[in-house]
Amino acid sequence: MPSVIWTRPALTALERHRQFLAETDPNLAVKAIQKIVEVGESLQTYPQRGALVEQTPGMRKLIVTCRESWFCSALRYLKR
User: Cα(71)–Cα(54) distance, rounded to whole angstroms?
Assistant: First the structure.
């Protein structure tokens, strides 16, 4: 089964997104981050999900929405 590797820029963006949402709605921040992680980790089961990042083989771009919030990140998956 493939494993998901969260890139450093993805983790940094995820934390910034959490901080931004927490300023106005801490509950939304928690739910949004949980959903983003869940969708990202779904690459273990569906490694072809999302758009290819052309400059980086093996990397996928996923867009996640949660109410008024959205998040886009590039994640790498490795085939085992």
Answer: 19
* CA 53, chain centre distance (Å): 14
> Is 0.70 topped by the overall pTM?
yes
Residues 78 and 3: beta-carbon distance below 8 Å:
yes
Angle at which helix 26-41 crosses helix 8-24, to 10 degrees, equals 150
By three-state DSSP, how is residue 13 classified? Answer: helix
Residue 55 neighbours by CB distance under 10 Å: 7
Strand 69-78 with 51-52, pairing: unpaired
Q: What is the pLDDT of residues 51-76, one digit of tens each?
A: 888 887 777 777 787 766 555 555 55
Residues 6+ apart with CB under 8 A from 35: 64, 66
Residue type, 64: V
Neighbouring C-beta atoms of residue 38, cutoff 10 Å = 10
